[in-house]
Write a structure and sequence with these properties.
alpha/beta; Rossmann fold; seven-stranded parallel β-sheet; 10 helices; 47% helix; globular; binds nicotinamide-adenine-dinucleotide
Length: 291
C-alpha cells in the first residue's frame, strides 16, 4: 500500500503502547483509525488524545479473545467508516516468571485467547472485508522477537508459545495471499517502553485473579524503543511491502545463534544415517511446497 489518505486502519490493543503508537502514526499519514481495546476508560482517553492530533478516530470496546466481540466491532467500523484497509492485530498480554507446568489452565486460556485467538479472530473478521472492496490492503500481526526464539533470561515461555503461533499464522497468510493486492507483515518488536508487563493487572476474573503486586516492568523495557518509533517502523515496512518487521538490530545475532543451532543439529542426523540407517527422502514435495 502506498496511498493512505482517507483509508481506514483498524488497530487492536490501541489504548496504549505500540497500538497507540501505530494509531498516531497511521493517523498522521491521513488515515482514519478504528481503535479497539478491552479497557474502555483507557481506550476513550487514547482516542481523545488521537483526535487532538486532528485524526478521525473511532473507539470501540472490544475483547479480541471473543470472536463475537471482534465481529461486532467489524460491523460497527463498516457502518461508521465504510471500509477497512489496514488491520493491525496487535492486542497482547504477557505472563512472566512462571514455569510452564505451574501455569494454571485459566491463564493458558487467557494468553492463548488474547495473543493467538485474538489474531485469528482479527483475520476472520477483517480479511473478508478488505477483500470485499478489491482495492487491496495490508494485515500486520504483532508477534514479538519472542515469536522467533525463546530467551532463557526472559522467563516468558508461555508468551513465546503464542507468539510462535502468530508467526506461523502470518507465514500461512502470506502463502495464501501471495500475488494478491493484500500484503501481510509480522511485527517482531523487542524491548519497547509499554505497559505489557502490567497486563495481568487487567486480567478478566474468568482467567484467574488479576495481579496486584508491584510493577514488574524491567528497566530494559523502560529504556527501550518508544511506541511511536515502532509505529513509524511499521508504516515504513507496510509502504515497502515487507513481511518480517524487526525493530532491534541486536536481535539479528540472537536469531543467527538460534538458526545455527538448528542447522547444526542436522550433523547428528547425518551421523545417524551413516552409522545406523537411512531415512527415505521426501522427494519434490518439500522443495516445491515448503520454500
Ligand atoms: N513492549 C514490548 O517490549 C513488546 C515486545 C514484543 C512484542 N510486544 C507486543 O506488542 C503488542 C502490544 O503490546 P504493548 O507492548 O504495546 O503493551 P500494552 O499493554 O501497552 O498494550 C497492549 C494492549 O492490549 C490490550 N488488550 C489486552 N487484552 C485485550 C483483549 N482481550 N482485547 C482487546 N485488547 C486487549 C490492553 O488493554 C493494552 O491496551 C502485544 O502483542 C505485545 O505482545 C511488545
Amino acid at each position: 500500500m502506498r496511498d493512505f489518505r482517507g483509508k481506514v486502519a483498524v488497530i487492536t490493543g490501541a489504548a496504549s503502547g505500540i497500538g497507540l503508537g501505530m494509531a498516531r502514526t497511521f493517523g498522521r499519514e491521513g488515515m482514519r483509525v478504528a481503535m479497539l481495546d478491552r479497557r474502555r476508560g483507557a481506550l476513550e482517553a487514547a482516542a481523545e488524545e488521537v483526535r487532538g492530533l486532528q485524526i478521525d478516530a473511532l473507539a470501540i470496546e472490544t475483547d479480541v479473545s471473543d470472536d463475537k466481540s471482534v465481529e461486532e466491532a467489524a460491523k460497527q467500523i463498516e457502518a461508521e467508516f465504510g471500509r477497512v484497509d489496514i488491520v493491525c492485530n496487535n492486542a497482547g498480554v504477557l505472563l512472566h516468571d512462571k514455569d510452564l507446568a505451574d501455569i494454571p489452565m485459566a491463564e493458558w486460556d487467557w494468553i492463548i485467547g488474547v495473543n493467538l485467538y485474538g489474531v485469528i479472530h482479527g483475520v476472520r473478521s477483517f480479511l473478508p472485508r478488505i477483500k470485499k472492496h478489491g482495492e487491496g490492503g495490508h494485515i500486520v500481526n504483532t508477534a514479538s522477537i519472542g515469536g522467533f526464539q525463546v530467551g532463557a533470561a526472559m522467563r516468558t515461555p508461555a508468551y513465546a508459545v503464542t507468539k510462535f503461533g502468530v508467526v506461523a499464522l502470518s507465514e500461512g497468510l502470506r502463502n495464501e495471499l501471495g500475488g494478491s493486492n493484500i500484503g501481510v507483515s509480522v511485527l517482531a518488536p523487542a524491548a519497547t517502553d509499554t505497559g505489557i508487563y502490567r497486563s495481568a493487572r487487567d486480567k478478566p476474573e474468568k482467567f484467574g485473579a488479576p495481579d496486584v503486586g508491584p510493577d514488574p516492568t524491567p528497566a530494559t523495557l523502560r529504556a527501550g524503543a518508544q511506541p511511536d518509533q515502532i509505529g513509524r517502523r511499521v508504516l515504513d515496512a507496510v509502504k515497502r511491502g515487507e513481511f518480517y518487521i524487526f525493530t532491534h538490530l541486536e536481535t539479528r545475532d540472537w536469531l543467527l545463534k538460534r538458526h545455527e543451532g538448528i542447522i547444526d543439529s542436522f550433523d547428528s542426523l547425518e551421523r545417524f544415517e551413516a552409522e545406523i540407517e537411512r531415512i527415505p527422502r521426501m522427494g519434490v514435495f518439500a522443495a516445491e511446497k515448503n520454500e
